[in-house]
Structures are given as structure tokens and as C-alpha cells.
Fold these 2 entries.
Entry 1:
Amino acid sequence: MIGRRGILKGIGATALASATGASGLRARPAKIAPLIARPPLKGGRVLDWHFTARERSARLLGPSGPGTRVWTYTDDLMPVLRAHVGDTIRARLDNDLTEHTAIHWHGIRVPNAMDGVPFLTQSPVKKGESFTYEFTLPDPGTFFIHPHCNESGQTGRGMTGVLIVEGDERREPDADLVLAYKDWRLAEDGSWLPFETTEGASRAGTFGTVRAVNGIGSASGDVPAGGDIRLRVLNLDGSRVLEIGVDGAEAFVIAIDGNAVAPFPLETWRMGSAMRLDLLVRAPKAGQSFKVIDYYSSEPWTLGTYRSIASAQKARAFDPAILYATDLPRANLAEAERMSFTFSASSGSAADMATKLEPNDPLSKILLDGLCVRDKTFWAINKASWPTSDHRQLPAPLGVLQVGKSYVFELMNATPHHHPIHLHGHTFEVLSTSRLARPKHFADTVLLQPKERIEIAFVAREGDWMFHCHLLEHLEYGMMGYLRVA
Ligand code: C2O
Ligand code: CU
């Protein structure tokens, strides 16, 4: 059995850069040259996509197991959609579910009206209704889609999909493999267990009973011996933290949440709900295998096993710098405004719910649907909890920001639990972390360790943007809010 690796060693020693505050992290290893800029775009295609959210049947426990009534966007259990940076997506969603839904394009810097948050950015797409999302893909990378209402119930039943935006490669890898991790909460007869429990919602989340990659079981396959294998690992589970390592091959981290980083050797990398990790692996000699393993669980669990098969290609030196540099707005740290957010347990008192919008604010007239709120809260951001069913009004924003201005957010975890914190519509830079060493990098979701303090920086984009913990029961039970950028 393979032992658990050093849990707090997020990255390899050569790339280890400890937090040094707002000024950022120490220099990267000298031998890796900076990534070069992506050439300018030459115009994109218009891609017409069609999603029908409805109940379908799947055998999640294996081909001879019982059937389960899943909810999906397409006939595939884990669709992998591919587009190119600069393409325009025109995606029609038809809703055949019994409740309203939407599509949130996690990590994509969409215009606010395309962000897929019922009540905040669009009307909910009710049963029998349709909505067409249309936007141009601004950045390449590894993203995903999911609904933004009753998330534990809808994604728990299967509503998710991988979205790969190509155009970040200087050189094509020899294989491009997706490992989309997501557990199922199933009883032995294939029926659903409750997606939420008080125990889970008030602590580390309710875990699935069946672990799965790309829908069912573990992944496996053949790869060309000596080839460069791009692995896109996505944690699409609503609760589980993964600690990803590769056994049997040399592996470099090449992108985090889809954003290229100067490659560094993978030791292990910790991923909360919604986080993505792109690796470049040098496949071993023919006949040998390598594995992608989660070392976080008490027994390591294999997400994928890949066997090298003989190939005609001749070996060249392993150069993990296959991606172009990111092309993202960078905050001006000297002029940035600082704001601080504390993630804590809620006081549970209705008085703490921030339902204090100006009376003439149009949002105050919108009633929240009972499906988007729960009947109690356990969690809060800056002492404000996302409303319960007793308070069906959009709360006041957690912060009011100015379009185009730079911000540094200080995120503080006042709890003994992990919280993967996500900001919609922005790709922020993780400037410093107090507990788990990470190189400075761009991300849309960052894992706050228990009691950790993290600083992120970004340039504000116009709109109302959700800001929340991505552990689904935490957001359902209060750890969610939004920022107004105007
Ligand atoms: Cu995957 Cu509100 O986000
Ligand atoms: Cu949380």
C-alpha cells in the first residue's frame, strides 16, 4: 500500500515558496523560464449547444448494478464540452426537471447576466422553460458547469459537466485526459440517500457513499510510453477534500483552476470542492503504469491508472512548460483597497441576517424561492448568513466595489473546518497563505484551511457576483453572499 505523503507539503521542495505577505512570494526556481505570452486571437466560432436538464437513468454502481434516476444536462453522465478561447457559446437550456434550475459557468469571466445565479443575475428557469446563454470565452483553461439553486440536491443527482477551453498550449501534449471527481450518495438499491444531513451541513459536509471519476468507478487507459500526458483533475464533489499525487511517473503542476503557472514538481496538491489542477506527466516505459491518487482519505484512493504502451515516438527531454502564460488583469497592489472577510459559524439569530437593502433597491422586491434557501443557518460571512426561508429577500451585498478598481481581500477562517472560497466572475491572484504553502497563482476558488488567513487580489468587474464557500451544504446553510460592483 502506498503511504500518505506529507499532508501539509502542498508543493515540491524546489518550488516551495512560503507566504511573505502582500508583497507576494519568493522567486520561483531559477531553472524554469517564465512562460511566454499567448499569441493574439484570430476570431472565434459560434458554438450552438443544447442542454436538456431532465431525469435520466444510469447505473452508477456498475453495469450490472441497479439503475438510478439521475438528473443531468445531457445524455452523458459527465459531459466534457470543448471550445476554444475566443469562441462564442450560444447554449440553450431547456428545463424538464420538477424544479427550477440554471447554468453557472464556474470560473469563466462571463458578463454578469450570463452567470446563471437565479434571482441575482437572471430569473430562475422554471420547469418547461428555456434560457439561452451567450458569451465569448475570454480565457483558456479547465472549467465546469453546475446549477446554482438547491445545489446539493441538483448536483448531488448529477447536474454537472466539464468545460475545457482550449488555446493555452504552445505544444500539444501526447494525450489530454480528464479526471472529474464526484461521489454519489447512494443506498445499495441504487436509490438516493439524503443529500444533506445536519451533522454534515454543520461540519465538514455530507459525504458520498460511492466514489467516482467521470461518473463511474475509477478511470483507466493506455498512454504512449514516454509521452507527455496532460491530466485535468477536477474536484466536482460538493464536500470532499482531495490531496492529489501521482505515483509511478514524474508530474508537474502546469495550471491551477485552469490558469497556467510556471511549472513546478507535484508533491501533492490539496483540492476542495470546485478546484481544478492541470498536470503534465511524463508517461513511464512501455508496460509500466502510473496512478493518480487521493492521499487525503484515510485509505489512499486511486482516481486513475494509466498504462504505457509502446509508441514510435522518440524520447525527448521532459519540458513541462507547454502552456502559454495567463493573460489576466493584475491588481495594482499599491493602490488596492483592502477588505476583510471572516468565515465563521452563524449566530443563528435572525437579526444577523443582512436583509437591510435600501427600500428602493429593485432587488429587495424579489422574493426568493423556497428551493434556494434552507430553514436554518449554520454559517456566515462577516456575521451575515444567506437568508433562510423565513427571510426570502436578497440580503444586502457583503461589499460594494468600484468597477475597474483593484482590491485585496483578506479571507479569515474562524472555524475548525475547510472552506473552499469561490468568487464569481473574477480570476483572482492568491497573494499569500498562512498555513498551506502555495506559489503565487491565479484561481477562482481557494481552500482556506482551518484557522487560515489568505490574501487574494483582483480587479473588480461590473455586476453582482456571488462570493461563497463551495462546500455545498455550507453555502446552502448560510456561508454565501454577493458583492456589488458598480
Ligand atoms: Cu461553482 Cu457559486 O459556484
Ligand atoms: Cu465552507
Note: The chain is about 5% helix and 35% strand.
Entry 2:
Amino acid sequence: MTPDDQKRISGAAAADLVEAGMVVGLGTGSTAVWFVRALAARGLDIRGVPTSENTANLARELGIPLVGLDDVKTIDLTVDGADEIGPGLSLIKGAGAALLREKLVWEASHRCVVIADAGKQVKKLGQAFALPIEVVRFGHPHTGRRLADIAAEFDLPPPRLRTADRGVVVTDGGNVIYDLGSGGIDDPAALGAALKSITGVVDHGLFLDLADEALIGTDEGVVKLVP
Ligand code: 5RP
């Protein structure tokens, strides 16, 4: 099975958790696309809360009615992908630059389910993937230097401003992303708290104690993990 097949079965399994009448958080990324497609195919009477403009566009195309986070008191279930899944279902998210909206939607949700291919599991967060940090655009080079100081305190290399073909990547919220590569984060909670203490940092991609379960696509089928 290819990683994409694993993502597909994981997304489909998560779509089966949705019941009519639910408000559902719709994640971002290639695995979340499989979930949104499988959910739309079920034709249930639900409302979706998208975590990015990309997901909102896809859901609209597929006929899923959408509401904003402002319009709902609580979200019954959010389903979203991850870049790394570590011990206790600690996560790194944000490769798709949607981490801020994703975290806001996750925190408003009654139940959060991670969907992923088997390659996303790691023994230690940061092992395979850089940690994205969302930073306000105003004065971001200064914030970037403060991030480098924090990184040094944690024996990590300086973070790098995320760019793509068209220049600096700007998030749906109008912010920029710094990626903190590491090779392994010893104390994710302490690093997260230190990053949040910097004024220009809006949030980071460490999702700790937020996931209720994970549905991992494997060659043997979908495996459910709990923290
Ligand atoms: C976007 C995310 C995604 O959930 C994460 O990048 C996983 O993406 P994919 O399913 O394409 O591997 O955090 O901000």
C-alpha cells in the first residue's frame, strides 16, 4: 500500500465516525482531503468548520455546508492530519501552514481524531520534521532572532523563514512561518511554552494533549491509537 492509500483508508475510517446533525471540524492537508471526500460521499446532514481556505474551497465544491468558528459554540468532532505523531499522541502539525486555525478549531472541539499514514509515527517529536512557528509579519526578522535565542537555549539550530516559489509563505491569517528543524525535541511542553512567551509568536505546531485518538492507515488496515 502506498502512503496515499494509507491516507485514504484512514480518512475513510474517520468519515465513518461522523453522525447526522454533527458540527465537524475539517482539517487541512492531503489526508484531510481524503476525509472530506469520504464525508461528502456519505451525504449526511452535517455542518463543517474548515481549518483553511483550501479545505473550505474543497468542501464547497463537494456540497458540504460550512459554518465559521464564530458561528458555533462547540464542535462535535474534528478530523485532521499530522506531520508527526509522537508518544502519547503528541503531534507536530503545520506543514500546510494552517496550524493556527487548526489549533483554534481543535481546542473548540469535543473530540479530535488524527488521521495519517503509518510513516508519520515517530519515537520523538522533531525527529523527521521541522516544527512550524506562526509569527506576525510586523517586525518578523526581530521575532526570528528571538526565536533563534530560544532555539539555542534548547540546543536547537536557528529556525528558518518558510519560502516557496512565490516568495515568503503567508498564512490564511496573514502571518509568516518559521520552521525549527531539530532532529528531536527533548521537552516539547517546555519548548512550546518558551515559544509562546515571545510577543510576535502567534502559535506553534506542537499539539500536545489535544488528540483523543489516531486512526493510522497501515498495510494491515486502519489501526486505532489512544494517548
Ligand atoms: C496542515 C497540517 C496537516 O495536517 C499536516 O501537514 C499533514 O498533512 P498531510 O496529510 O498532507 O500529510 O498540519 O497545516
Note: The domain at 3-122+208-219 is CATH 3.40.50.1360 (Rossmann fold).
